[in-house]
Amino acid sequence: MATVRAAIGPDMHLMVDMDAKGDEASGVAFAGMIAPFAPYWLEEPLDGAAINALAAVSRATPLRVVTGERQFGLPHFECVLRARAAQILNPDIAGLGGILDMLDLAHMADAQGVAVSPHCWNSMTVAASAMMHVCAAIPNAEMAEIYPEYLAHGARFASVGFRLNGANATVSCAPGLGVDVDVPALQACTAVFKQSDLERTGVWV
To answer: In angstroms, rounded to a whole number, what is the distance separating the alpha carbons of residues 161 and 179?
Structure first.
């Protein structure tokens, strides 16, 4: 952490992700070790399903704790908010349940001063576009997480509903979240996937 902070300087965000590998004790200890280097946030110091332990870590550190990308459904996040287990939630919009559930969660989180930084990895077309539109509509959006390396694959069969300009995104005002799916191209991608999977495993999916 000291080496990275020295390399990037004091103004660039340094974001730390423990990948849910720790437990309450290691999360608290690690947070204390890295706090002097002013990380922007501490993501998943432990599995988000361990809400009470996560809340203990949040109480023990001044760092902003992030959780949610591995969890599903509003009930889980309602429990996280009740326990005040995190300062930032990063649900996956497809895993959470879609646009309406994301808007409900953002409203509940905002009432507690909790930010929302949605995570999206499973679709750089429909889901990512939906996520971008939600972020543009809620007051407590921290940032949106996407995987740019997946964009080229999605572009083979769909146009996305947002345009990236560095770290910023502009959403489309076109119908359907601005996503235009080329159905024959999507079917061709699906056929290629099924054939390659059959060759690899001997079964269809």
So the answer is: 5
